[in-house]
Amino acid sequence: MTDDTAVQARRREIASEHLLFKLIEYVEQRHPGLLDFLEGSLDHLGDPAHDETKDDEAVRQIARQMITGARAEIAE
Questions:
Q1: pLDDT tens across 21-59, in order?
Q2: How far is it, in rounded angstroms, from Cα 76 to Cα 74?
Q3: Ranges of H-type helices in 31-75
Q4: CB atoms < 10 A from the CB of 28, how many?
Q5: Contact status, residue 27 vs residue 34, Cβ threshold 8 Å
Q6: Burial of 70 (0-12, 13-18, 19+ CB in 10 A)
Q7: What is the pTM of this model?
Q8: What integer pLDDT is reported at residue 72 of this predicted model?
Q9: CA neighbor of 38 nearest in space, from 67, 68, 16
């Protein structure tokens, strides 16, 4: 049986990620430099977990992949 809370969280994450990508694309197309700025901020990004799941670099890698995807989408 699927946990309803986990399903809702996944759906919110998918929706939020889509809207964030579209916002980034919109701003970058009108004001170039946003993606460079975001990329430059990644050293300050970390995982707030306080247990064995904490992995700052994994969080940064996801952000890098999102930036790469946004750059590719804009280049099309």
A1: 999 999 999 999 999 999 999 999 999 999 999 999 999
A2: 5
A3: 34-40, 56-75
A4: 19
A5: yes
A6: buried
A7: 0.79
A8: 92
A9: 67
Q: Are 25 and 73 spatial neighbours (Cβ–Cβ below 8 Å)?
A: yes
Name the 3-class secondary structure at 46: coil
What backbone torsions phi and psi does residue 11 show, to the nearest 5 degrees? -65, -40
Q: How many Å apart are CA 51 and CA 56, to the nearest integer? A: 12
User: Are the beta carbons of 74 and 28 closer than 8 angstroms?
Assistant: yes
Side chain identity at residue 12, one-letter code: R
CA distances from 44 to 8, 32, 39, 63 (A): 29, 22, 10, 12
Find the Cα–Cα–Cα–Cα dihedral 69, 49, 58, 22, rounded to 10°: 0
